[in-house]
Specification:
218 residues; alpha+beta; PH-domain like; 2 domains; four-stranded antiparallel sheet; elongated; transmembrane; transmembrane helix
């Protein structure tokens, strides 16, 4: 995509990718249409808590069935934990990957058939890039304050996706949930290719939902 060697970047998770307002609204409507699966994660989590509480109270009170509770409780708990893994709840996951072939943006619809979507965006299809940085906490495990985030606005030549919006964490340490390295490499490649790039700053301490609330609706 450029004359200089490209950096090798691992795939990361974005918090949300909007390919088009109408498509985004339809995907969310499909997600909310049936939020009561037979084996939902909330029921499974509640079952784990009840089994653990039953075991603890039996041992604490030293009741006659304490031995059976200790013997069979872990087996039941293991079965419920396995259910959490095998029966995940409905949801939308968003992935971003920047490689030699371009920027791959993918929406994975978990237990929601028909709503997977992916776009491979080459620099020749990119007209303009806008980067909006939202300042915030950089220590994931040491604060409850909103983390630093970044929003990428990709103006493309694609007929069905003229403007793709991506929002995610903007943490300097490379990790699966940070878009920082992809943002920096994409900006570098765009500047080398002569694609207009603008970088601005948004309000501090923004949650992903607050950023998305300002996006145009279908």
């Amino acid at each position: 995509m450029s004359g200089e060697p490209a950096r090798t970047l691992k795939p990361v998770r974005a918090e949300w990718i909007c390919f088009a307002p109408a498509d985004d609204a339809a995907a969310q409507a499909a997600l909310m249409a049936d939020m009561r699966p037979v084996l939902s994660r909330s029921v499974l989590l509640g079952g784990c808590a009840l089994i653990l509480a039953f075991m603890l109270q039996a041992v604490w009170r030293n009741v006659p069935y304490a031995g059976e509770a200790v013997l069979f409780g872990p087996l039941a708990l293991a079965a419920w934990v396995a259910g959490l893994v095998l029966f995940p709840g409905r949801g939308l996951l968003f992935h971003a990957e920047l490689g030699d072939g371009g920027l791959l943006l993918r929406r994975q619809a978990r237990r929601l058939p028909g709503w997977d979507k992916s776009v491979l965006l080459d620099l020749t299809q990119l007209q303009r890039l806008e980067v909006v940085t939202y300042g915030g906490a950089l220590q994931v495990y040491r604060t409850a304050a909103p983390l630093a985030r970044v929003e990428l606005l990709l103006y493309t030549t694609l007929g069905d996706c003229p403007l793709i919006r991506v929002v995610g964490l903007n943490l300097p340490v490379p990790q699966r949930w940070s878009l920082c390295q992809i943002k920096e490499e994409l900006v570098r490649r765009c500047k080398l290719a002569g694609i207009p790039v603008s970088e601005t700053f948004g309000p501090l301490s923004q949650q992903s939902e607050a950023i998305r609330a300002r996006w145009p609706q279908a």
